[in-house]
Write a structure and sequence with these properties.
Layout: H1 2-23, H2 28-41, H3 47-54, H4 59-75, H5 87-101, H6 119-127, H7 136-155, H8 159-182, H9 188-216
């Protein structure tokens, strides 16, 4: 529990420092170099599968998974621990707040490719934000798939599932991060920011789960 709480604090500090660097524009040259590299390997025939891959980090699916996790933990008797799923809500609110204040314009329309359909597109228009830091898809993916992997690793009665869960979560995170850059809907720094922000709330959620489990003994 203490280790997870400490890790959450470290992630939060690193995220804050990284946010300041991004807001200062120090990584814009690096971001464009990465974007040029991805543009060089872009294949239009792969647009549909990559748009489908984007759905894995979309607000719709991650919300359903978080609700399912909440319901599962609640029914298993972890009434307090179930609220760890609320990390998705809080991390999304922080992500949207950052997009209002961090001066990080999204990749231009002539550079980006069509993204997977999501209600977050409507939210972005309603909030009037053209900023892209941090990546919401990556943030949500870290929180939800990381939390699912942790719960499976702790509660599953099948050894193969406990071993496989973190591997599957890691593969999904890498795929979603790559997807954001391949579709050119985010900069590299947006992806890194999403990993740090998601890691902050994932570690905090794990700390909450461990604390609530220890209290119920």
């Amino acid at each position: 529990m203490r280790r997870a709480a400490l890790l959450a604090g470290i992630f939060a500090v690193v995220f804050a420092l990284f946010t300041a660097v991004v807001a200062g524009g120090a990584l814009r040259v690096f971001d464009r170099q990465v974007a040029v590299g991805f543009a060089a390997v872009y294949d239009p025939s792969l647009l549909t599968p990559f748009r489908a891959l984007a759905l894995l980090g979309g607000l719709e699916l991650t919300t359903l998974l978080a609700l399912g996790l909440f319901a599962y933990l609640w029914r298993q008797g972890y009434r307090m621990g179930a609220w760890a799923a609320a990390a998705l809500v809080v991390s999304t609110l922080v992500e949207l707040a950052d997009k209002q204040f961090v001066d990080q314009p999204s990749p231009s329309a002539n550079m980006a490719h069509p993204d997977g359909p999501s209600i977050t597109d409507l939210l972005g228009h309603q909030l009037g934000s053209g900023w892209s830091f941090p990546s919401g898809h990556v943030t949500r993916a870290v929180v939800v798939y990381g939390l699912l992997a942790f719960v499976v690793g702790r509660l599953s009665t099948r050894p193969w599932a406990r071993r496989l869960a973190p591997v599957v979560a890691a593969v999904l995170l890498v795929a979603i991060a790559f997807d954001r850059l391949y579709l050119a809907v985010h900069w590299e720094s947006d992806v890194i920011g999403g990993l740090l922000l998601g890691g902050t709330f994932l570690a905090a959620a794990i700390s909450w789960l461990e604390w609530s489990a220890a209290r119920s003994r």
